[in-house]
Amino acid sequence: AGGVVAKSAVYDPFVSSTLSIGQYLWTVEKNYFKGFGLLRRRKKEGATESLNGASVELAMVVNNVGRYQLRLSFDDRRSITLGKGLAQEELEDLSRVINDHCTVLRDST
After folding, report:
1. Using alpha carbons only, how large is the chain's radius of gyration in Å?
2. pTM surpassing 0.90?
3. Do the Cβ atoms of 38 and 31 come closer than 8 Å?
4. Which of 14, 64, 72, 79 is the most exposed place for a label (fewest CB within 10 A)?
């Protein structure tokens, strides 16, 4: 566990993520912070019709405790992960909300 904590502190800066799913366009923006300032900002976007949905998956096990993440999957077999550090229950709720929203958008077209 010590190695994972050290790696997280040194190599993995704090990440804030924003997900927006509109009728025609989805956007994921991740802001990476280290120390006292913004280190980097990454933004990905695409057509909403290409978004297949969200699922929760086991990312790693630390001291026999699972750490989970949210995976967004797309038609072209690409995927994006986010939500590392959130509880599995929170990620399951987010996955349900995202999938319900995608269903509503698909049914409205």
Report:
1. 15
2. no
3. yes
4. 64
